[in-house]
Amino acid sequence: MLTNKEFWIGLDDTDSPEGMCTTWLGARLIRDLRAIGYQIHEARLIRLNPTIPYRTRGNAAIAIRAFGDPDIAFAHACSLVNRYADMRCEKTHPGVVVADEQLPSDFYFKAVTSVCTIPEAEELLSKNARAWKGFKLGRGLIGAAAAIASVLPDFTWEYLAYRDESRWKTPRQVNPESLFISEEVTTPYTWDTIDRSQNSVVCVPHSSDPVLYGIRGDSPFAVVHSVSCIRSEPYPWGQIWLTNQGTDAHLLWGKIGSLKEWASYRVIGTVLQQPITGIGGHVSLVIGDEGGELTCMAFEPTKRFRQEVRSLIPGDHIIAVGSFLNGTLNLEKFCLCSIERDEYKIAPYCKACQKQMTSAGVGKGYKCRKCGAKSVSPEIVTREREILTGWHEVPPSARRHLARPLIREKEEHWEDSFQNIT
Ligand code: ATP
Question: How many A from CA of 54 to the centre of ligand 1?
Fold first, then answer.
């Protein structure tokens, strides 16, 4: 018998480096369900812990809130996974979950900030889900359950354009000029379509998955407005996703000395040494507090961001933000909270002759060679700092899906000004 009701369905781990994409499968499921009369109330694209080694690319999972028969939807989702998931790949272990209501949010918070196990997911599902199926190891049950458990105190939107199957794995045809125009027309309400600083396109992937491009923004209207400006190969369909991308949902506050591997943090510290540029152009920065020292890295792909890291000097107070992996914090952004004076010592100038003095010998201060005047202390010169206080972030080409771009800060200014008015 048909049961028509509201329900959630989650999917994960269907793709491999050779192809497929869980968002495509989710969008395909949405189209199929709508075609047989289901209502789609919400389509969520949920990014989980970005450091997880099992991920193929961006650790995405899908959750759909729909109205219709949950059991038929579950059976259809499983048949889509059987047909399209890249099961030959040793890293692909799909999961499909159906639940009558959202799953407990603790599981989402753990999956976005930490590491979950398959038995943990199975235990949660056995208590709360209507039906679930793990394929192969069934690791995708973690992401599928976490997506259904997701809570979005902050959220953004992404329009994903999906290529016709006949074009998969062929070069993508998207007019770059039209992308620059679409960004110009909709900024600051969309972001990461292009990287102006490097004159490059960001929103068109290079991998062999079915995505043609993705436009991220503040609202469904902004992303669709942006899409209307883009010229590309014809594509059969796209999907607007509600997402936790660009919200910093993966970040915890951390203290030096107690950071855990595979988690991402905001850490407060003082710069202890001049940053060093190493082999390959990677920049390392050491910060510290009473708990010890922490090495932060700005890798070569973060391009101009490295110059901002290099501009830091000992004594600067910062909030460093990034993932803790192999004992170092890989920087996504930092906030320069208070700026140290960049001072250095020189031999003083003679007040009478206006000439610079020279050393009078070790420990003997300075002496004017012209009139013989003496000074015990050097002159302190302050160099102008090249960096301003506030936030500094990696360019769009190096940004994590979950990292909140600084362009979104405008919303806070709106809220501030709104509060001032009311
Ligand atoms: P794409 O973004 O292209 O869809 P992906 O990067 O999402 O691919 P998946 O193929 O989904 O990668 O692989 C990620 C795997 O890691 C999934 O099986 C997912 O359930 C699991 N996973 C996600 N978050 C966690 C976590 N916090 N702890 C343990 N496993 C996780």
Answer: 6
